[in-house]
Amino acid sequence: MQLVKKEIRTNNHKVSKLVQLTIDEDFNVSDSRQDIDKIIISQGQVVIDETEPMVDRIRVKGHVSYKILYSVAKAEGELDSMEGSVGFEETINVDDLLPSYDTSVSCEMEDLNISMIHSRKIAVKGLLQMKIDVTEQDVLEGAEGIENGDNIQCMYKKVPYTRTVADQKDVFRVRELVPIPQSKPNIRKLIWHSVTVNEVETKPLDNKIGIRGELEIFLIYRAEEQMPLQYLNLDIPFNGEVECVGSMEGMTADIGVVLGESQLTVEPDEDGEERILNLEANLELEIRIYQEEELELLGDMFSTTACIDVETENFDYESLLTRNNAKTRIVERLKRKENQAGILQVCYVEGTVKVDDTHATEEGLMVEGAVEVRIVYIAEDDTRPMNSLTGFLPFTYLVEAKDLSPDTIYHVRPTLEQINSIMLGSDEVEIKAVVNLSIIAFAKKQCKIITDMSISEIDYEKMNQLAGIIGYMVQEEDTLWNIAKRYYTSIDSIRKVNQLERDELTPGQKLVIVKG
Question: What is the DSSP letter of 340?
Answer without folding.
Answer: S
